[in-house]
Amino acid sequence: MITNELKIQLFDKAKTMLNFSYAPYSHFHVGAALLTKNGKIYTGCNIENAAYGPSNCAERTAFFKAVSEGILKFDAIMVVGGPNGKIKDYCPPCGVCRQVMMEFCNPDEFKIFLAKSKDDIVEYTLKELLPLGFGNADLNK
Predict the structure, then answer these.
(1) For position 12, which CATH number holds?
(2) pLDDT above 90: residue 29
(3) For residue 37, what are the contacts with CB-CB under 8 A and spacing of at least 6?
(4) pTM for this entry
(5) Of 5, 48, 59, 109, which one is the catalytic site residue?
(6) Crossing angle of helices 58-68 and 95-104, rounded to 10°
(7) Structural domain boundaries, residue 74
(8) What is the rounded CA–CA span in Å between residue 70 and residue 87?
(9) Is residue 59 flagged as an active site residue?
């Protein structure tokens, strides 16, 4: 179970990542904090590119950092973001990020936290945000 204290810690780390976001085109800054099964937290921010296609979301940045260090099991992610780094509303992961989560996470168990503040955090499972997700188990059918 993920405690409120841990959710606030994830929020603080995700919010800090807004400062590192590279968003000169959209000006929409996103930060993420990814909790591994072993309790370590990996952070990420969005990184834009003038060609747009090579841009990377905060969620994928966090996942790729963890996977590049051999970590493949995850419990939850906190995502925050907004125009010019100001959190005004919930910032759900895009479809590509949800698909990356599907690759590494149990959709029934993996938690996605979206927050407007430390006191306004909503929780979803990956399955709720990607109800008919396609994963590696589908390749073996």
Answers:
(1) 3.40.140.10
(2) yes
(3) 73, 74, 75
(4) 0.97
(5) 59
(6) 30
(7) 4-140
(8) 32
(9) yes
